[in-house]
Design goal:
Shape: globular
Oligomer: single chain
Number of domains: 1
Low-confidence stretches: none
Distance between the termini: 10 Å
Radius of gyration: 16 Å
Largest sheet: 8 strands, antiparallel, barrel
CATH architecture: 2-Layer Sandwich
Order of helices and strands: EEHEEEHHEEHEEEE
Helix content: 10-25%
Length: 194
């Protein structure tokens, strides 16, 4: 499992309905993308859920590197780059994934929390704690799913979770979910990823 996210931070007066319209038109294009676990089309709007910015920031969990590379190099990502400029694409190695109990309902919000992996910690214990936190989040009422992944270049842990209502039981940046493409979500390995 591999996590990926890019962020397009937009001007404070940007009409975010432009992004909503774009996702409404093109979101379905990844609904059957080979190798994709899921793509959550995410939006933060300045002043909503405490967001200081307007931002479009899709989050992906990939089942295969081939699927991710096909997206990045096969033309789909190029269209976004042509329209908005090429954003930096963050990538993390997956360490845990759990499906939540609210698997049927539409995900309404996502929460992303990034934190540094501190110097001097025992890496195995730190990552085991992340696995436990993933299971805890997925077990909360209203959780659709939870995942954890680590960027070993920056030594950063990211926790990501989807929720069926607008009152998630997780801390972090809160995003509106505009669409969820999840062709391979049922094939994402559950639990610890090693």
């Amino acid at each position: 499992m591999h996590a990926m996210q890019y962020e397009l931070t937009l001007p404070a007066d940007y009409d975010m309905d432009i992004i909503r319209g774009r996702v409404s038109r093109v979101g379905h294009l990844l609904d059957d993308w080979e190798g994709l676990g899921f793509k959550a089309y995410l939006l933060r709007e300045r002043g909503t859920h405490g967001s200081p910015v307007n931002q479009y920031a899709p989050f992906y969990l990939w089942n295969t590197m081939e699927g991710m590379n096909s997206f990045l190099w096969g033309g789909a990502f190029q269209r976004l780059s042509d329209d908005f400029g090429r954003p930096s694409v963050r990538q993390w190695t997956g360490v845990a994934y759990e499906a939540g109990g609210a698997v049927g309902p539409r995900a309404r919000v996502a929460v992303r929390r990034r934190q540094p992996v501190p110097d001097g910690v025992q890496l195995a214990a730190f990552v085991e704690d992340a696995v436990g936190e993933t299971a805890r989040l997925a077990g909360e009422d209203g959780a659709v799913l939870a995942a954890a992944a680590v960027d070993t270049g920056r030594w950063e842990l990211v926790h990501f979770s989807l929720w069926e209502d607008e009152t998630p039981k997780a801390d972090g940046d809160v995003f509106e979910v505009l669409h969820l493409s999840a062709p391979g979500r049922d094939r994402l390995s559950r639990g610890r990823q090693w």
